[in-house]
Design goal:
This protein is mainly alpha-helical. It has two helices and two strands; from the N terminus they run H-E-E-H.
């Protein structure tokens, strides 16, 4: 049976599901998480995407 997660997906859950140890929580600044007026600094998304892309490509080159 495969593990299931509840709530918002994140890269930590995705990597852990593939057997890659990961720590969730790295990402753009956000405020009022899970509230009616939740918000994130969207201008920061490209830099975090680039970091995750480099990490995943590095893992793939390493044979994960």
């Amino acid at each position: 049976m495969r593990a299931k997660t509840a709530g918002s997906p994140n890269i930590g859950n995705l990597l852990a599901g593939e057997g890659i140890p990961a720590t969730a929580g790295f990402g753009p600044v956000h405020e009022r998480l899970h509230s009616i007026d939740e918000r994130t600094r969207l201008a920061e998304l490209p830099q975090f995407y680039a970091v995750y892309q480099r990490a995943v490509l590095g893992l793939l080159r390493a044979g994960w």
